[in-house]
Inverse folding.
């Protein structure tokens, strides 16, 4: 049946009709809000390249999370900026490390909040790479051992979800094994499975003070030209025991989200990264885009592609926008 019998505009005439036939919905429970924690007290330092996002000390983080929950966002992911860095990222797996301390406090104060932790060494190493270095390269297997140690220390502090973002081979299996051996068989692994070597991480590296001091991450993160390889990564992570697979970044990788959604039956998370956020913020500040409309359009697109949960710096704002 074609025109004039079929008129596609019939269903678009009224807000209520558009809502009735909408194929995609977003809710605050889709979102995971990223936060950056620093040592100290009373610290709330805005990240210049990510307006509205802050490096926070644990006390400020607690208040911020409490407020976040009032908007229906019940999940966060934490990144730590340690007081000192070294070649092997010792602070990453220290029992009194910044993340371990933050998680313990959060679980005490907000027991219903889902606390995810980023498991990666780049914020903790003085060279800024995601593992230990041998002959100018990240040495895979010794790094995996440290990541497993880090994940267990996060679980011990109370993290319900550990999220390895390092892109080492075999890390999911090693983390699962270490968690189970330490009696954390219920700790969830959300694997950054298809994490691309992306230009969109720039603002995050300011926020986490983690840019690599030499070279780049292309020896371990994925090549932007590849899609089939992403499916292999996701399948391997699931075989090794991942509960959730993640695609990162999101906006430039909607095809990857869709493909993994169609080929794997596990939940597919997507990380709308710092550069995606800052790009819109910068344009909005110049009056070149409307932040709310652009942000929701991006988040709907990510959901439509098949991702949930969505890790996004708009989690709080989007929850507020959606409730209006
Ligand atoms: C740590 C990590 C990074 C991000 C999340 N975990 C940075 C990187 O790989 O350089 C990026 C998140 C963002 O840009 O918002 N490896």
């Amino acid at each position: 049946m074609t025109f004039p019998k079929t008129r596609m505009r019939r269903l678009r005439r009224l807000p209520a009709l558009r809502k009735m036939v909408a194929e995609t919905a977003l809710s605050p429970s889709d979102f995971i809000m990223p936060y950056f924690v620093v040592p100290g007290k009373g610290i709330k330092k805005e990240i210049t390249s990510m307006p509205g996002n802050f490096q926070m000390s644990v006390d400020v983080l607690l208040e911020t999370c409490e407020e976040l929950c009032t908007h229906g966002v019940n999940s966060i992911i934490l990144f730590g900026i340690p007081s000192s860095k070294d070649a092997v990222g010792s602070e990453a797996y220290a029992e009194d490390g910044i993340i371990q301390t933050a998680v313990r406090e959060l679980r005490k104060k907000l027991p219903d909040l889902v606390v995810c932790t980023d498991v990666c060494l780049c914020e903790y190493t003085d060279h800024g790479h995601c593992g230990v270095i041998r002959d100018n390269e990240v040495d895979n297997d010794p790094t995996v051992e440290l990541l497993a140690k880090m994940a267990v220390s996060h679980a011990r502090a109370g993290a319900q979800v550990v999220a390895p973002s390092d892109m080492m081979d075999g890390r999911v299996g090693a983390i699962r094994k270490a968690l189970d051996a330490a009696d954390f068989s219920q700790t969830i692994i959300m694997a950054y499975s298809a994490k691309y070597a992306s230009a969109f991480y720039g603002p995050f590296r300011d926020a986490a003070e983690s840019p690599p001091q030499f070279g780049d991450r292309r020896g371990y993160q994925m090549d932007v030209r590849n899609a089939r390889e992403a499916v292999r990564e996701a399948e391997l992570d699931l075989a090794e025991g991942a509960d959730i697979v993640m695609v990162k970044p999101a906006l430039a990788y909607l095809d990857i989200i869709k493909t993994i959604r169609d080929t794997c039956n596990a939940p597919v998370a997507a990380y709308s990264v710092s550069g995606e956020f800052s790009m819109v913020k910068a344009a909005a500040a110049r009056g070149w885009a409307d932040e709310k409309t652009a942000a929701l359009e991006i988040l709907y697109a990510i959901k439509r592609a098949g991702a949930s949960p969505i890790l996004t710096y708009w989690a709080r704002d989007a929850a507020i926008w959606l409730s209006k």
Observations:
- The longest strand covers residues 188-195.
- Residues 118, 120, 122, 130, 165, 201, 204-205, 217, 273-274 surround PBG (CB under 6 Å).
- The mean pLDDT is 97.
